[in-house]
Fold this protein.
Amino acid sequence: MKRTLPLLITIATYALAFLYFSPVLWLLVTGFKTEGEAIIVPPSILFEPTLENLRLVWDAGASAFIGHSAIVSMTSTVLALILGVPAAYALAMLKVKKADDVLFWFISTKMLPAVGVIIPIYLVLKELGLLDSLIALVLLYTAMNVPLVVWMMRSFFKDIPYETIEAGRVDGATGLQGFFKITLPLVRPGIISTALLCFVFAWNEFFFGVSLTSTNAATMPVFMSSYMTQQGLFWAKMSSVATLAVLPALVLGWFTQRQLVRGLTMGAVKG
Amino acid sequence: MKTDSKLARGALEPSSGARGLLWPGIIMVGIITQLPFLYTIYLSLHDWNLMRPDLGVTFAGLSNFGQILSEPAFWEVLKNTFFLTVFCLLLCLAAGMGLALLLNRDFFGKGIIRTLFVSPFFIMPAVSGIVWKTVILNPNFGFSAYITGKLGLPAIDWLGKYPLETIIIVVAWQWIPFFMLVLLAGLQSVSPDLMEASMLDGANRFQQFFNVTIPHLLRYIEVALLLGLIFIMQTFGEIYVTTSGGPGYSSTNLPFYLYRLGFQSWDVGGASALGVLIVIIMTIFMTILFKIMRKTFGGELS
Amino acid sequence: MKRQTDSLQGRKAMNLKKYFTPVKLLLLSLMIALTACGSPANNDGSNAASGNKASDNAAAPAASGKKVELTIATVNNPDMVVMQKLAKDYEQETGVTVKFSVLPENDLRKQVTLDVSTGGGKYDIVTIGNFDASIWAKNGWIETLAPFFDAMSADAKAAYDLDDMFPSIRDGVSYENELYALPFYGESSMLYYNKEMLEKAGVTMPDNPTWEEVADIAKKLKEANNVPGIILRGLPGWGEMFAPLNTVINAYGGSWYDMNWDAQLNSPETVKAVQFYADLINEAGQPGATATGFTEALTLLSTGKAAMWYDATVAAGFLNNPNSSQVVGKIGYAKAPTAVKENTGWLWSWNLAIEAASKNKEEAFKFITWATSKEYIEKVGETEGWVVAPPGTRQSTYENPKYKEAAPFADIVLESMLAADFKQPAVNPVPYQGIQFVNIPEFQQLGTEVSQFIAGAITGEITVEEAMNKGQELAQKVAVDGGYKK
């Protein structure tokens, strides 16, 4: 009894995980089927994989869109960290008047849905000649992610044990040096997990991407959306393009999830 | 908490330095999010239909606000937003906790299993909406129809009959992994000493869970809830590709209502007024929530 | 060791640095920010570089006779995919660069509306429906084409042969008798049925059925084959559910407005038509009707999971494509079902228009005449196969024996296109144009909202009468607020 119960729980966990993952699995697999096979229920497990859809999608110019997405997501993530981490440090470690209000203000900027500001943003970008430019998306995604960085990093900074910093100060590592030599390494897992979240949110952002770009800066979700309501049978092609669209974020997530857990579990450092 | 304030007062930096660190972020976010918002406020006081340039842009005072508030649809949408957010968060919390507990054991292939569970979180909302709509929910060729067919039951028209509930499930499917990760992190950081001590006190597993684990997890729960709240309140992609907010308004939430006003009616004034209302509603809601949290967690926000 | 030197230096510099640290941090972050921003800007060339320069640069090549770049906003349907392919040849012939921005229909309309209404000038050529054409022309968002045609040589004009275009299609892209767009592709609606399933049920389909006959057959088909007897779109949206539903409303003598712009949605005729539609779906239609759009319906019929389908004529091509359809050769065709009114088939076209804010109008005109010419259709037929030649725009296509052979349904389409009355769609005279839509800008919202109510009636949340009364209120409000009702 004592032995079988954990085994049963483990098996149940396996089954549950498979069920939970199955929609993603369907997506990844269907991209390699023909359009005819893609709509068979229940989905065929044994089939001859075809690269035809992937080739079609690639020929339609997927690489340019992936490039735009990569540039925009990475640049905006780096920028959000550069702007957000110092602010979070200040809010966590230094004496700031109304620190809570500042934090609340940062969070409050995320309350207005993107649809609510799209027309003003469109008009401003038009005046600046920045419509359909990568720079516009970089700026928007940075602003979108800075509050997230501030909020998450602040709690990581707060979790740094006082003794550690004190010890550093005794060694004379204060100011900028102290920050880079002692504080920053301590929150590295936190920075990585924050960066991952920023990247994922920027990569997956749909509405600004679709509304503000057309060709020169169109991102992967824009490319994908052109397949979404296409006339005719398109599940296989849709799956192909969706696979391309979600894979970078997914793979990144797979590889950094350990960091993500570590980042979110910074409190353990204390113990 | 005490040590933190001592640290600050210990004059690591003067407070002018703090400002230097804060301002770049504030300026950046301020310019890009607040200026358009000011413009939104301006537009909310005007009548402007993009499709009718012949009518022009005219000052309307507060009539846009009056019109929205007197619309029965608005109140239905508000109610939907509330239900969607609250039930989704509860579902995420409960299921996320369950999964975190399952994964907080030692067993073979743990890393892979966690990878499988985490995956939905990284999928674009629009993609998960389409996959659910097509593969699982479609009453003709979806998987649920296949199963009900095998059981000899009539197919269920999920998106037609239970639109809001279905969207809650789809959104939860995406956000449960995040809750799971945060809570798992929390579980893994419970100090073993504490657990042992409570064991020695003769606590059974359930008592241990409620007396030791849950209090320890409160901060993690707060992190997950707050982040989840902001994003789930803004659910858009899933609705856009599955129900388009229907039938009627039964699965329209505030952001999607804004979309319907702005990009189906092309009523820029009305949509802007709704945008302003959303910010007001959310600010009030969040302020209350923060107050409650401050009381629960003491002193200040974590 | 190293750590010691570091801390030593740190101690020395401490007092000085104390104040400057935050400032330095700020400078550092700004510097990195700027270099980081630099990379995408460079990557993107002049476009993202800065402000007004971008638009200057865009205009410059046209003036100096250098390479012209045309940006085209388009929908991702198969005909447009072919056009993208053949545009490569056009680029080679003319030296003009053609860039496509491909979007789903709804996103396209949103994007382009945003662009033209704010004078953005992001696109030179826009793909618009016959619903949009008159509205956009009225708003001054697209160019009238008369001056361009006037400037054409007589030979070129004769080769293009505007009179070859179906009159109903030309009506759809005209405003105050002036042409504003060139039709690229046109369609009507018809009834598809699975011949084997009809055989099994022992029924036959007349060539020109009434809706009552169709409903009767649908029920028999459902019983005999244990599949939905007929598929009808129920997905809310003015261009989704209302495309077929409006033709049913017209067939039963209903309409959206009367000549005084008084809404007619709860008139006995309109209610009867909607009731018929909802009943038919619930008695013999597909489950999950309110999530069924064109694509879902196509999937059902082409996998042999339904017996009949009433929808766009363009579907015939997909149903006969052996790569994706399991019912090739099993499909029969009938004209759009009727009731009190004959010729109820709808009329839709995708058209190419020149955006008013475009800086390359001459080149844009050359491109749209190329893409809608007889030669283009010929070219598609010869290189891609005649079955995918853009249908529904030119009489000459339907006189071409190669096309007739490839498209066995061509005659029904031709008859429907010729008979479709774009200007007078309903039994009673109406103040608007358009068969499956009302050509006022407010219809996008109105149609979508009312279709949401009807979706509620189909799922049984409310009755059809309740839905239509709600719709009536909205429609009346639109007529008054929009300034149509005097």
The domain at 64-297 of chain B is CATH 1.10.3720.10 (MetI-like fold). The longest strand of chain B covers residues 46-47. The mean pLDDT of chain B is 84.
